[in-house]
Design brief:
Blueprint (H helix, E strand, L loop, with lengths): L6 E9 L7 H19 L3 E8 L4 H10 L3 H18 L6 E4 L3 H16 L3 E11 L4 E3 L17 E10 L5 H10 L4 E2 L1 H12 L5 E2 L1 E3 L6 E2 L2 E6 L1 H6 L1 H4 L7 H7 L4 E5 L3 H14 L8 E4 L2 E3 L2 E2 L9 H8 L1 H10 L7 E2 L2 H30 L14 H9 L3 H22 L1 H4 L2 H18 L4 H11 L28
Parallel strand pairs: 1-2, 1-12, 2-3, 7-13, 12-13, 14-16
Antiparallel strand pairs: 4-5, 4-6, 6-8, 9-11, 10-11, 14-15
Bound molecules: 5'-O-[(L-methionyl)-sulphamoyl]adenosine.
5'-O-[(L-methionyl)-sulphamoyl]adenosine binds next to strand 1, helix 1, helix 7 and strand 12.
Length: about 475
């Protein structure tokens, strides 16, 4: 366990509030919540930042299309995001909105500093722009004149624009990747990005002619800031870059920015270059996960969609959280199926975890306990689990925890405490369930809080190796009802 540092800063991308949250966006947000909670049980002070990316042209466009006033539109939708995250038990520290006053100040400050350094110049942008991606494309990137991701026609732009000298940072970026092999995780994703950087970088257009929305450039009021340049700086605003310097110093660099693979370029290339330009250290890690699909089609606001209520409605919040991180390695793509979720709910959460709890507590209610040295706990691969969590290998960590649940269930079968009435065996089992309840809390907090309340233990990592002070225990209520 790495306790060298007592604080931890994790972020999600800030989401475009041009639609409602869905499994795709929930995935990153739950991952961040799991990682934040894990760091909390380790005893660290954690900042978990999420929020909405509101200055995008596509958000403005969605507001215009809906006929609602744009401010009211983003107010309403950003509230909706926060509300849906609460339903999933997402315990964020701050919900940032890029229309927040402190954020606007930070964007202007970064622009001003970069400009003073001579890294911004005025020119003319001529090329293509995909509103869906909010990204610039060259002819060779397009497929039949369409955006390769959204498969829609792109805008053809020719207008004056300010540019950030991204090309200047090629060597510094390559040095960053070389010296910090964990900067881009999973490592399998790094190669593609590094190769593209090696091919050379084009300067980045960072402004559009003012169209009535967005943050104006501090040095030219006729232009608004390019939305990605604005959005990325939210990671600085969120920990008080200008308004709380002490906090910023304490929490920066971020331990991990969690993102989807589609936005890796912005986070692994543009963002560190922007930071190096103003003399700020890049984040420690950018972790880019895969995409969820439904029958192999990407889940998105404009395509197939499963909203949060529907997701939770299948088998409850904890089962949804569990499924998303158990079904596919965190980093790979996954295909979503309701049946697969129900199967895991029934076979793993109900049959393995739920049964263990109700069986053991039922026997303890009848027979009582005798405190002893818990030899069963030796089968728990705690160090391994910690290492996996540090590397964000969430699926593998879950796998190890569930192997231990299997060990516990086998122990019950082998020792037959319903025949022997062996109170020491029952103590070992209760003490082991405590360890499981602590380790699973980041993933399935609601259920683990029920277990901790029932068995009266604190959800803290250090409690795992402290013998449980269990007194009288009643049979626990069913944790997961089978579907
Ligand atoms: N606003 C930008 C991020 C700015 S961060 C400084 C953005 N927003 S988004 O709402 O379009 O998407 C946010 C995240 O959700 C991305 O990381 C994206 O990969 C993720 N997902 C959206 N659909 C997804 C799936 N179907 N599956 C997994 N993640 C997906 O991009």
């Amino acid at each position: 366990m790495n306790m060298a540092s007592k604080k931890f800063y994790v972020t999600t991308p800030i989401y475009y509030p041009n639609g409602v949250p869905h499994i795709g966006t929930a995935y990153t947000t739950i991952a961040a919540d799991i990682i934040a909670r894990w760091q909390k049980i380790l005893g660290k002070e954690v900042i978990f930042l999420t929020g909405t990316d509101e200055n995008a042209k596509k958000v403005y466009q969605a507001a215009l299309d809906s006929g609602e006033n744009a401010r009211k539109f983003v107010d309403r939708l950003s509230k909706e995001f926060a509300k849906q995250w609460k339903k999933l038990n997402i315990d964020f520290t701050r919900f940032i909105r890029t229309t927040d006053e402190d954020h606007v100040e930070v964007v202007k400050e970064i622009l001003r500093k970069t400009n003073e350094k001579g890294d911004i110049y005025k020119g003319e942008y001529e090329g293509f722009y995909c509103l869906g991606c909010e990204a610039y494309y060259t002819e060779k990137d397009l497929e039949d004149g369409c955006c390769p991701i959204h498969k829609k026609k792109v805008e053809n732009l020719k207008e004056p624009s300010y540019f950030f000298k991204l090309s200047k940072y090629q060597d510094k970026l390559l040095k960053l990747y070389k010296e910090n092999p964990d900067f881009i995780l999973p490592r399998s994703r790094a190669k593609e990005i590094i190769n593209r950087v090696k091919e050379g970088l084009r300067d980045l257009s960072i402004s559009r002619k003012d169209y009535g929305w967005g943050i104006k450039l501090p040095f030219d009021k006729e232009h608004v800031c390019y939305v990605w340049y604005d959005a990325l700086t939210n990671y600085l605003t969120g920990i008080g870059y200008l308004r709380d310097k002490k906090k910023f110093k304490k929490f920066w660099p971020a331990d991990v920015h969690l993102i989807g693979k589609d936005i890796a370029w912005f986070h692994c290339v543009i963002w560190p270059a922007m930071l190096i330009a103003v003399g700020i250290e890049p984040p420690k890690t950018v972790f880019a996960h895969g995409w969820w699909t439904i029958q192999d089609e990407k889940i998105s606001k404009s395509g197939k969609l499963i909203e949060i209520d529907e997701l939770i409605g299948i088998a409850g919040v904890d089962s949804a959280r569990y499924f998303l991180f158990r079904e596919t390695p965190f980093g790979d793509d996954g295909d979503f199926s309701k049946q697969a979720l129900i199967d895991r709910h029934n076979n793993e959460l109900a049959n393995k975890l739920g049964n263990l709890l109700s069986r053991v507590t039922g026997l303890v209610e009848k027979n009582g306990l005798t405190k002893c040295n818990n030899k069963l706990l030796k089968k728990l691969k705690l160090k391994e689990i910690c290492k996996l969590m540090e590397k964000f290998e969430l699926d593998k960590a879950l796998n190890e925890i569930f192997s231990f649940i299997d060990e516990c269930n086998e122990y019950v079968q082998e020792k037959k405490p319903w025949e022997t009435k062996d109170k020491k065996v029952l103590y070992e089992l209760v003490d082991s369930i405590k360890a499981i309840g602590i380790l699973l809390w980041p993933f399935i907090p609601e259920s683990c809080e029920k277990i901790s309340k029932h068995l009266k233990f604190k959800i803290e990592f250090d409690e795992i190796n402290k013998p449980i002070k269990a007194g009288k225990i009643k049979k626990a209520e069913i944790l997961f009802k089978k579907i």
